Structures are given as C-alpha cells and as structure tokens.
Amino acid sequence: ASLALGVVGAAAGAAFAPVGASLATWALTGAGVGMMAGGQIEQGQAEAAAAQRNAQIAEQNAITSQQTAEYNALASEMEAENAEQIAEYNAAIYTANEKQALETASYNAGLEERAAKRQRAKARMKAFASGVTYEGSPLLIDAEDEYFQELNVANTLYEGNVQAAQFRNLANLSSYQGSLEASRYRQQAAFGRRAGGLTSQNYLQQAGLQRFSGSQAKRQGYTDAASTILMAGGKAYGMQNPPGGGGGQGSTVKIGS
C-alpha cells in the first residue's frame, strides 16, 4: 500500500506542481505523502491482523478450556460411580457376613441345645438305673444343669447377634461413606464445568474485544491516511493559490514600470 500510494503521490505531485516549480521536488513530496499515508494504512492493517490472531487464540483457548473442564468433569463423575460401586460391593459383603453370623450362631445354638438335652437324658437314665429319684437335691442339680445349658445357648445366640450387628453397621457405614465420596466427586464435576464455562466466556469476550480493536485500528489507519492526504492537498492548494496572489496557475508578476 505504501509503495502504490507513493507512486500515485509522485504522479499527483508532478501533475499539480505550480508553474515554475521543480517537478522532481513536487513528485518527491507527493511520493512522501503517499508513502506516509500507505504506511498509516499498513500499520492499521498490521494491528488489525495482530488483533485477529489474538482473537483466534482466545477463541481456541475458550474451546480448550471448555473441553478440559468437560473431560475433568467426566473423570470426576466416573470416580463418583466407582465410589458408589465399591461401597455397594463392600456393603453387600458385610450384609452377607451378617447373615452368616446369624445362621452360624443359630446352628451352634441348636447343636448345643441338642447336646445338652442328650446329656441330661443320659444323666437321668443313669440316675434311674441307680435307683435315684428326682426329688430334692437331684432335681435341683438337674434344674441347675438345664439352666446353665440354656444360658450357654442364649450366649451363643447373643454373640452371633452382636457380630451380625457389627457387620450391619459396617455395611451401613460403607454405603454412607460411598455416598459422601460420590457426592463430593459430583460437586467437583459441577464446579469444574461452571469454572470451565466462565473461563471460556472470558476468552470469548477477549476475542470479541480483540476483533473490535482490530477493526478500529484498521479504520483508524484509513482515517489517518485520508487526513494526511487531505492536509497535503490543502498545503499544495495553498501554495498554488497564495493569499493575495490574484491568480492561480500561470499568473505572472510585472516587474518595473
């Protein structure tokens, strides 16, 4: 642009040179004005191109920010699902252990109860064979044995219930902790998405400002170039038509009387 306008300016300077003025001087002056105007246009275009590149970079950053936030959010959601699955798996194991503890206690209590009954039956048969009647002390002893045997059975069932309750608490705790961890990951995913959206919007705003700035710089370059040309044209017109000159191109001044 500066070279082309320099050539145009040189031609214009030579064409509008006053009579008697140096065509070379006016051509060089016109070329300088044209090149200055072209430089102003090129500067505006360069600033506009730089702003355009910055806008493209900002838009790419917006896309990258959004994609990164979405990737991290999906990863957090996967962690949430994993936490829930692990918690459910552990809870299921604890629940199975609870059931097994109850069944084992019930089975052992049954064994103890049947063994106690057989033992008491043998004792009674032996006593009967010896001619002992179940009155007084023998009856009290038999009742005491039965009481302690029933107490052993009850203790076995109690211990099984205690163990089952422990497994039940562990199952509930696992589910609760898994739910908390999953909730934390989901909150992290939601926060990451919001942050990514805000960052992306910020980059897009920057891109818009860069494009506007580039448009303004380009427009300003043309405006400055036009001002330079108009000012040069005004000076040239003033030199061609000086105040009180009474004429224009081709006017002469008479010397002597």
Task: Summarize the structure in short.
With 257 residues, the protein is an all-alpha fold. It is 88% helix and 0% strand. Helix 1 runs antiparallel to helix 2 (23-129) and helix 2 runs antiparallel to helix 3 (137-240).
Topology overview:
Layout: H1 2-15, H2 23-129, H3 137-240
Features:
single chain, 257 residues, mainly alpha, 0% strand, rod-shaped
Order of helices and strands: HHH
Can you tell me the residue ranges where pLDDT is under 50 for at least 5 consecutive residues? 7-11, 246-257
| Strand percentage | under 5%
Structure classification: mainly alpha
* Sheet of most strands: none
Number of strands: 0
Spatial gap, N to C terminus:
53 Å
Question: What is the CA-based Rg, rounded?
Answer: 52 Å
Overall body shape: rod-shaped
Number of helices in the DSSP assignment: 3
Helix proportion range: over 70%
Mean pLDDT: 79
Notes on the protein architecture:
The chain is mainly α. It is built from 3 helices and no strands. It has helices at residues 2-15, 23-129, 137-240. It is rod-shaped. Mean pLDDT is 79; it is low at 7-11 and 246-257.
